[in-house]
Design goal:
The protein is an alpha/beta fold. It is built from nine helices and seven strands. Strands 3-2-1-4-5-6-7 form a seven-stranded parallel sheet, with helices on both faces. Strand 4, helix 4 and strand 5 form a beta-alpha-beta unit. Pfam families: adh_short (PF00106).
């Protein structure tokens, strides 16, 4: 029996780690790409022996993508069935207060990194045949623009658009293209400040707003279902599900609720 293989960016913690654990438990070969080698080593220690390969990768580096996927393919018997474009960073706060380099870094990692990953993975996914999948981490922030999250929302709307575009573009090649749209997930990113001028971490603002924090394992289950299912966009968590509902069925009400509000400031 041929063992399937998945390459996961941001695999050193959070959602990436939870997805690695999920797929390894199902007998898959797992490749991890991250800027944190120590984080990837910790993830690898949680997986069955012989199921994990990891390589340092900055998703902004197009040539680095080619090198990382080539190295992983050598360890996986030449195949990559799924690329999970998961690496991303948060940013929040009034647009006028954000530094240029903060904006550019977020755009480069969250948006260009996804495009580079898709481009680099395409020949492997095409060779893997029907059932291969590009899975992207979008966000509930890709459902409706929220105050204090303009840059982050722009990147996640972009990821959603990439998913929809490539779903059509790659259909003839038998490649599934899917994305996950989670709300606030229990990951280390919640303990970071939304921008360098903020004195509060994201977690305190989420809790203060009365929003739920979803376990990363729930996202991993959604990732498994997305890779094997027909749903283009998969919302994860109550916040994402509410936004999806109101943006479709009551956009006027949602717009009124959003004015003057924001989670990350």
């Amino acid at each position: 029996m041929v063992r399937k293989a998945i390459f996961i960016t941001g695999g050193g913690s959070g959602i990436g780690r939870a997805v690695a654990v999920k797929f390894a438990a199902q007998g898959w070969m797992v490749g991890l790409g991250d800027i944190s080698e120590s984080g990837m080593a910790q993830t690898a220690a949680m997986l069955p022996a012989g199921t994990c390969f990891f390589v340092k990768l900055d998703v902004r580096d197009r040539a680095g993508w080619d090198a990382a996927l080539s190295a992983f393919a050598e360890s996986s018997g030449g195949r990559i069935d799924v690329l999970f474009n998961n690496a991303g960073i948060p940013i929040g706060g009034p647009l006028a207060d954000l530094a240029t380099d903060e904006i550019e870094r977020t755009l480069d990692i969250n948006l260009k990194g996804v495009l580079f990953g898709a481009q680099a993975a395409y020949p492997y996914l095409k060779a893997a045949g029907p059932g291969a999948c590009l899975l992207n981490t979008a966000s509930a922030a890709g459902l409706y623009g929220s105050p204090g999250m303009s840059v982050y929302c722009a990147t996640k709307f972009g990821v959603r658009a990439i998913t929809e575009s490539l779903d059509g573009e790659w259909a003839a090649d038998g490649i599934r293209v899917r994305d996950l749209m989670p709300g606030f997930i229990e990951t280390p990113l919640l303990d970071h400040a939304p921008n360098r001028g903020s004195n509060h971490d994201v977690r305190s603002q989420v809790v203060g707003a009365g929003l739920e924090i979803t376990p990363a394992s729930t996202v991993a289950d959604a990732a498994w279902a997305a890779v094997h299912g027909e749903k283009l966009h998969t919302t994860v968590g109550k916040t994402a599900q509410r936004l999806a509902f109101f943006s479709r069925w009551a956009p006027g009400m949602l717009r009124k609720q959003m004015k003057g509000r924001g989670v990350m400031g």
